[in-house]
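Sample 3 of the quickstart, ligand NDP:
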Amino acid sequence: MSVAVLGAGAFGTALAITIARGGTPVTLWARSATHAEEMANTRQNSRRLPGVELPENVTVTAEIGAMSANTLLLAIPMQQIAGFLAKNGHRFASGAIVACCKGVDLETGLGPTATISAACPGAVSAILTGPSFAIDIARGLPTALTLACRDEAAARRLQSTLSTETLRLYRTTDTTGAELGGALKNVIAIACGVTIGAGLGESARAAVMTRGFAEMQRLARQLGAQPETLSGLSGFGDLALTCTSEKSRNFSFGLALGRAETFDAGKTVEGAATARAVARLARQNVAEMPITSVVASVLENRITIREAVEALLSRPLKEE
Ligand SMILES: NC(=O)C1=CN([C@@H]2O[C@H](COP(=O)(O)OP(=O)(O)OC[C@H]3O[C@@H](n4cnc5c(N)ncnc54)[C@H](OP(=O)(O)O)[C@@H]3O)[C@@H](O)[C@H]2O)C=CC1
Ligand SMILES: O=C(CO)COP(=O)(O)O
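Result:
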């Protein structure tokens, strides 16, 4: 089994490192030739994941034509995937493509695996998601993630290929649940960041997390996900990590918003686009998503944070 990682960001690099440490050679592709050369020379990805050495069996390249492995990890941000595959998908007509991203495409409303299948119908599409910070994986700290693939046999194969001594993968065929959990928790993490940043307190954060989880489950159920997937690593697990740590870019982005501070626009904050994509579903009455809807409205400058809080607190009283 050969493994290649498309995208030399923090997550792609961390996955390349841990899989290579397990003994499987990995090719890591960066879109910039300068970046690839820098990594090959210094044996570090100082731009995206500084401080961790690339094992010898990681080959870095900017040649997309060199990416011929039968297991491809696609580790670029969600909103870039459709465009990337429209240009390069013909190269990956067969084999398995594992999405390593979290979100919903703003234009199509599709998640990662459906976006892959639309561009590469002959490939097996899967998703690797769940609670992990790239730096923790790269440092070899224990982490557990969900590998979701509709094809049970392929799911087993990918689980075994991609698990390492420190990265433990659980498998499921519920791709809908796994990818919705990963996408939606980022929006709730932004809301939690705003809550703390605006000084509303930890009790309020717990309320946002819990009611956020309720709306994640509501939408997922409506779209055909299994409830237990949402209670697992890719849903509840990732929600717990992302809503409580300043290492999360989504949480930190919300924190800055709540404090009326600026945030580095170069950082990947998947929840911002996802909030807008999912709020659209809420407007179409697919499911009631009050927290996601106010996050989208705040991000689109349609309401202030104060108005968002008022809108949530003045909703009709109801059963839990
Ligand atoms: N970081 C983390 O802890 C975790 C991240 N994830 C998920 O992984 C995904 C990627 O995030 P992460 O690695 O952190 O992000 P980063 O911001 O660290 O890196 C993104 C990478 O994608 C590349 N890229 C962006 N657009 C394109 C494109 N159009 N074509 C090719 N390459 C492109 C960037 O290239 P360049 O460097 O040239 O800009 C960069 O290498 C996200 O969906 C995130 O939610 C999941 C779990 C943990
Ligand atoms: O998805 C993550 C943790 O599981 C990483 O979170 P951020 O993208 O918010 O940094």
